[in-house]
User: What shape does this take?
Amino acid sequence: MAMNRQPADDRVWRQVTASPRAALGTCSAVGPVSQDRVISTVRGSEVVSDPTNVLALEAAARRKAAGAPVHLASCTRVLRGQPFDAPGLFQHFRLFLSELLPGREVALRFTVFDFPPLRERIKDTVRPALEPLPGGVAIDEDPDRERARGYYERGAIRIDVATGAGWQEVGDGGFTSWTARLLGDAKERAFISCASTERLAALSTAL
Assistant: This one.
């Protein structure tokens, strides 16, 4: 795993350039994902299939060294081994977020998984700090979401964009136990998220 490290200042976001390869087992060891989805190499490494796993390792290392909050971002091209039959899904794609859809209706939806205190914090702390979001982005709750329950813990988010055929998901995220397990500290909290530039680009060309 190779990364360009920036000067230590964990109070701001840091752009991290991740290697296209990671140590063998990174994805399945950090997150609850089968190794069958990962392309392994003959040199004891694997092609990155989810940059959030790699960033979690980097965040844990920085947390251990400095003890301060860590905020990392990366624009990484990833590759997954399983074929996708559904339209709009890709085996290889780049994950990041940018403003490509001016004039589109956008919604940030959150789901709480069996942890009422999180809903209270979103109501009394998070939403007042975020709203109003730029561009009129709406924030609402999706209480019926079950997808990725178990992968995300306590809560998850989704970014949807309105299209002529309905809502199109372009981003996803949530809380994980990854850094808590890596550092052996149950008080650790890690929140990961991603957005697909391919989906954003495809929607932008339809404007």
Remarks:
- Confidence is low (pLDDT under 50) at residues 1-11, 92-96.
